[in-house]
Amino acid sequence: MSRGRVEADPQGLGSLPVYLLLRALTLLACWTPRPLVEATARATAWLTDLVLRRTEARQNARGRGVLRHIEIAFGEALSPPERRALARRSTLHLTRLVLEILRLPRLRSAAQAEAQVDFSEIDHLLRERTQPLIVATGHFGNWEVLAYAGALRGSPTRSLGRPLPWAGLQRWLRWLRARAGSDFRSKFRAAPGEEARELSGIRALKQALSEGQIVGLNIDEDVRRGGTFVPFCGVLASTHASAALLQRASGAKIMVVTCQRSGPEQFKVHLWDLIEADPQLEPDAERVRVCGRIAAGFERALRAYPDQWLWTLRRWKTRPPAESGEPGEERETYPLPPRIEPARAPDPLPPLRPSWTLRSGLAALTLLVVALGVFLGGPRRVADTSLLEVRLEAREPAAIAREIAAREAAIGDVDSACAARVVF
Asked: For the stretch 372-408, what's the b/e string if a residue is b when 16 or more beta carbons lie within 10 angstroms of its beta carbon?
């Protein structure tokens, strides 16, 4: 078994509450009509954007945040209002993405997958392939739809990913991917007792390629150690070299693809590059070439669909040694923009501080609710035992006294405020 970190068991009892909650949300999302789902996505995006705008200044000062990353990618090509508009659209994309993933179990056959996802650009490569294939994608569009619909069409992939911090979420994702036939492996060593995944990490992918299968890689994130620095949007970015290493070992072709949203729950798979191995190059030169072409393909996808990328990723966080600022050292030709953005115009939105009128209204409403609760929730025996009215016909005084005594005994613990009134 491979060495390294051990993944927590996602099948344990601790994962059950989050897993059951996500299963319930999945069922609810699948039953909800699409117009209501779209309205929910827009409302959630508006609230999320309202909250994120409160933290932008602090995020920019730390060299992170959506606006900071948009500035790095587009520079002066976008004005501050255009960056803000792009950030707002990306938030809406994120809420749609979550709801689309929750609704994936609605796809149950290859015909339904083909009706929702257009595979025309890569369909011939999948049908005519005679060797293993590496699919390199990133956090563009909806990558879960790409894997799910592809597996339903008869092209399942074996993918590799970092375990999520919540075991319940990890368990739900495995259940979702297994419904379509995808094989998801952990980046780390499997927990004891998990017999379904005999191999994990890069060895599992090498085994799949040796068997002629399709391997999927999501490789548009920053690599803190051991990455290959290639330009992405004009700035050097530390890039995963796993696709280049796997291609070197197996000779498989690399498809750089993304699954972009083209309409309400409609997607199109784009082929941005098809990379073949070049055994004549040295390993280091080949790794830089392949990583550079993958990054260039991702950049074309970003330029075409700027609002459908996960802008929260800190893609340019790790810097090469030449940008460390040491004296006498030559810097790279792809400088990083300054960490702190220039002074921005005042925010047109007022701060989220309730006025005195709103506070007074809320206090009055609270007192009204408490008063109604006391009035309606008091002892019912007082409300039910109002004035005892005994309507008597002409009877003997002894009979009248006996009936009054019987009524008082039936009431029992009636309050002193309740009296008996005799009407002759």
From this structure: eeeeeeeeeeeeebeebeeeeeeeeeeebeeeeeeee
* Per-chain mean pLDDT for the chain: 79
C-alpha 215/C-alpha 152 separation (Å) is 16
Q: What is the pLDDT of residues 211-256, one digit of tens each?
A: 999 999 999 999 988 899 999 999 999 999 999 999 999 999 999 9
Residue 395, classed as helix, strand or coil, is: coil
What are 344's two structure tokens? 């921005």
The answer, yes or no, to whether residue 209 has pLDDT greater than 70, is yes
Global pTM reads 0.73
Give me the torsion for CA of 85, 91, 92, 97, rounded to 10°: 150
Is residue 423 within 8 Å of 389, Cβ to Cβ?
Answer: yes
Q: Say how far apart CA 146 and CA 150 lie, in whole Å.
A: 6
| DSSP H or E stretch at residue 133 | strand 133-137
Centroid of chain to Cα 202? 25
Tokens 């409300």 correspond to 383
How far apart CA 416 and CA 382 sit, in angstroms, is 10
DSSP letter at 105 equals G
HSE-up of residue 324 (Cα within 13 Å, Cβ side): 7
